[in-house]
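Notes from the 1:1 (GR / supervisor)

We went over the backlog. Supervisor wanted to see one worked example end to end before approving the batch request, so GR pasted a single chain during the call. The sequence is below; no edits were made to it. Supervisor asked that the structure be written out right there so they could see what the output format looks like.
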Amino acid sequence: MIKILFIGDIVAGSGLEALKNLLPEVKKEFSPDLVIANGENAAKGFGLTPANMKAIIGSGVDIITGGNHIFDRREVAEVIDSARLVRPENYAPSTPGKGWRITEAKGVKVGVLNLVGRVFMSPVDSPFVAAERAVAEMKAEGAEEIIVDFHAEATSEKAAMGFFLDGRVSAVIGTHTHVQTADEKILAGKTGFISDAGMTGDADSVIGIEKKAALRRFLTSLPVTSPSAEGKGTLNAVFLEVEKGGCLSIKRVQRSEKR
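Structure output shown during the call:
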């Protein structure tokens, strides 16, 4: 059995600080064999820099996943080919980086796949076609467990992906909306599923954006700079126990820094 901790979108400095301060106690409590975190919002809410990546790995994360903001910072080009970083698999074939990686935990090969949705998102290739191809490739390379980060807006699209991959991957974990959902379950084919793992950042905000700026945009419909909220952070995550290509248990995790 492999224990995996998947951490929801790390947002800006608040998220990085919360990760550094809270992950040690979470790891002590759950003793994960592998830690995965979505890091595409680490750079002030938009993108990922080499410094952000260093901080995330330094806090105890093994693999970083991305999403629609992964290329927002040009500096990411310096680390995009790292074996510890994945970007969406359903980007164009010429896009730098890889959409999946295989790592090892307790002597077991674990594949980590990143996909981005199409509903209410920018145009990309079909995540379903990409998932079909990538899962086959990972298994051909010996992956015994596969964790999918589906970075998507619509819960319907995420649910569909869960059923599409049920019985073929260990878990499908949704990211992107920054709100942890209460629909964690194990599907009929033994695939763990949750619509969204949530956000690691300042919960006293509008999905990581400073409240006054977000309200100004909604109240005026005018373009507004969206500064990230930088208060005390909350770590949202999902803890999984997986074995023989399936999920034995899935549990939501939420820990907050004292304000």
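Supervisor's comment: The mean pLDDT is 97.
Batch request approved.
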